[in-house]
Amino acid sequence: MAGGLVIVGLGGFGFLAALGHTTSVMSKAALTALYMIGNVVGPGLFAGLEQETSRVVSSGLAAGVDARAGLRRASLVGAALAGLTMVALLAAAPLLVVHSFAGHAALLVWLLLGMTGSAELFLMRGILGGTRRFGAYAATLAVEGLARLLPCLAVAALGIANVDVNLYGVIFAIAPCLAAVAAWPSLRRTHLVHPSRGTDRAPRAVPVSPGLASAPVAAMRAVEVGEEPSLGLARGDLLDGGAQTPRPGVAEAVGGHGLERIARGVALLGVATLLAQVVANLAPLVVTGRLLGSRSGELTAVAFGFAFVLARVPGGPLRLREGAVLAGHGPARPVDCGADVGTAAAAGPGLAGPA
To answer: What global pTM score does this model have?
Structure first.
């Protein structure tokens, strides 16, 4: 995980460094704005989708509940969120193209494509995190970073001058799409039903204690186990061994897989993370928008944007993602030192720069 996150950071640094040496001043400012806006909108909105998806999957596995129904609802919420994001960006297109992209309308197209890929990528990362497939999760981080870093290194090695902005637009947009594709093989091998829950028993009615008649449990009264996929239940999910009582956590897990619960969680997390990303990245966006139009202003905007990106240390998401997964799975191994190692590694270039 830490290594993958470092590669993502290197990919961003390489992207900005390459365009800084191979494009005109105005193109530098426009592409820096594209990178900043993508980092605000993508992680800002879709990180909440990843966390909710991870919660749904991990809570289902912990309670022995089939998580596929909840995952379908999370996918619907993600698709709706992606659609709303496209509409909002298109509505803001006149301002973005003129004030941020220096008149390069094609950059808006690459931004939309990149956000579509980000929506799919964050959903897949939620599944991988929820099933503790951290190796595959780290692979998506590595692919995303390398998909930006390697083409930029190739451009720099070839010594190409005055590269068209569309080339860098494609590099920016294709990275999350390739990372999502890289997750497909792992997802095909992912099981969303707890392996200890057998399916060889005949379906039977589920007796529910009157004292446990919460809304989710009450909805299970007339359910034959394994007969109602809309509730996300598998055979043997509800009964604790041979006892005639529901397994602990089943009602809470099923209730947490409802569409309203998932949509509310994605909305609240999305607003919180988006505001955090806006606050963290607002300065270079404002500077770029205000200084475009003169060569000296554009040079200042580019330099400020580069310095801002290089000063950022992308370490925090490791703790959020792994902590959310551990909470969903219940007591398990403690969070390891990967986040600390990743933060230290990402901080290395920033500490070496002033020296």
So the answer is: 0.73
Write down the pLDDT at residue 291. 63
The per-residue pLDDT for range 226-274, each reduced to its tens digit, is 333 344 444 444 444 444 455 556 766 677 888 899 999 999 999 999 8
Task: Look at the chain and report how many structural domains it folds into.
Answer: 1
* Within a domain: 248: no
pLDDT tens column, 60-96: 888 888 888 889 999 999 999 999 999 999 999 999 9
What residue numbers bound the domain in which 158 lies?
A: 2-194+274-352
Whether 152 is in a domain gets the answer yes
- Quick check: is 17 in a domain? yes
With helix as H, strand as E and coil as C, how does the chain read?
CHHHHHHHHHHHHHHHHHHHHHCCHHHHHHHHHHHHHHHHHHHHHHHHHHHHHHHHHHHHHHHCCCCHHHHHHHHHHHHHHHHHHHHHHHHCHHHHHHHHCCCCCHHHHHHHHHHHHHHHHHHHHHHHHHCCCHHHHHHHHHHHHHHHHHHHHHHHHHCCCCCCHHHHHHHHHHHHHHHHHHHHHHHHCCCCCCCCCCCCCCCCECCCCHHHCCHHHHHCCCCECCCCHHHCCCCCCCECCCCCCECCCHHHHHHCCCHHHHHHHHHHHHHHHHHHHHHHHHHHHHHHHHHCCCHHHHHHHHHHHHHHHHHCCCCHHHHHHHHHHHHHHCCCCCCCCHHHHHHHHHHHHHHHCCC
Tens-digit pLDDT profile for residues 8-22 = 888 888 898 888 888
In a domain, 72, yes or no: yes
